[in-house]
Amino acid sequence: MMSSDHQSVAARMNGSVLLVGPGWLGERVATRLVALGATVATLQRRAQSADTSEVVALTGDITSAALGLESLAALQHIVTNALPAPIDHLVVCIAPSRARGEDYDIYPQAAAGATDLARALGIRSVLYVSSTGVYDRHDGSEVTEQSPIVPLDARVQALYDAEQRIATVAEDPEAVVRIVRAAGLYGPQRDPAARLAAPTFASGDVWCNFSWRDDVVSAITHLLTHHRAPGARVFNCADGTPLRSSVIASTLTGRAMDVPTAATMLECTAPVRGGRSNQRVNVDALLATGWRPMAPTIYDGLRLLGHQVPFDAPAPVAP
Fold it and tell me: Can you give the residue range of the structural domain that contains 30?
């Protein structure tokens, strides 16, 4: 099934976009926005040429925009010299860099800078990429955009604080703020097949959720071009097919995995390893906008990566 971004010939963007964080995901978003007709500039800390000459690569630290008027003015100058005013959209795809020794604090710091820059430049359309990790469920429950968030560790607190800061852009009654919570990103250069087939992955038999990278890209461009109602709104972005880790591992290896009994499952409410959740991500809100994933299951994505996955792969197990 093709995504709505690929299906719709009306999904054109004639405006300008500033994209902060052109990494593995953001770079692909920038390329897609250019293909849709937008004028795109990317902003990152270190000087680096863009993948395509049609994208203007800018060097600047988004976190500096929240450090005072002088720093904000300097970053504003960099951006306005590259993009025609007014700038139509600000897209933020930030994640900690292990190479730079960053921790989760980069989320709220970047969000604060992006919020101040958006206000300074009069940008009224902001899209921020977050994570379904913000729900932090370990009991196998379903999570929707209305599920309460109770930060219990530094990562979840940072994700939550960043979302709250970005949402303040919508204090302008004409502003459009979209927060996209992506789950389990994978795709080219991030092939999870070996990890998913490992016995350690099946342990705990937790619910898993995945997002094919280009499906997140299409969700971002779809929301920018089709969903323009003012205010702040959150959308979960995943393939929409949660699967148990034991089912995935069994399918990929052709070997049955030990599945815990009901009594054992009561003891498996904690994550198997740090950062691993046990939750079922509901994407009905995003589907209701007309978006559709290209890879509606992890098996479809693995096939796109060239893996031989049986087409009679087990269906999701009811909770």
Answer: 13-186+212-240+281-295
